[in-house]
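User: Can you fold this complex?
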Amino acid sequence: DAKTTQPPSMDCAEGRAANLPCNHSTISGNEYVYWYRQIHSQGPQYIIHGLKNNETNEMASLIITEDRKSSTLILPHATLRDTAVYYCIVGNNAGKSTFGDGTTLTVKP
Amino acid sequence: DTEVTQTPKHLVMGMTNKKSLKCEQHMGHRAMYWYKQKAKKPPELMFVYSYEKLSINESVPSRFSPECPNSSLLNLHLHALQPEDSALYLCASSQSEVFGGEFFGPGTRLTVL
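Assistant: Here's the predicted assembly.
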């Protein structure tokens, strides 16, 4: 299973876009990229996933590079409630996709 | 109904106790999971049930015993736990084991004395 690398922490100003990077250089052709977030003491929350194409939903956008070795999660207008640990996970089988250490995003007023 | 519920929210138990954690979902999902999360660490997968059958056991000690009575329910039976087993126990479900996008419950905060 492919591993992911994320920066341990990032800050973002409230109202600005938050761009969270993830490296997954060993991703294989049939593995998806998933993003989750975990607000303190709550269960993780699914955000978005993609295979090759960029994806957008009501929460975020996911940009995957053409070689699929990295991706970026974009929160277009970050709010204080977006402060959380963001996990990038790669896999094609939910049972074999492991959480890495994630990025702690702090949105500041 | 798009949520996973877990009971109890908090549990304190002694090392000789037997207790159970419960998880329920009514989304028609056929895969259900137990994760363990220590403080400031990512969740670690413990068990996966697919179509009510145990499909993955990540070398979890036998003092943790999962059970899937039906497609909506998942239990985790606890016996003779150690203080180092204190953690947040998370249940999750997804449409199938192949598809990700898991829905997580709020977790049970377990303290073993």
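The mean pLDDT of chain B is 92. The first strand of chain B starts at residue 4 and ends at 7.
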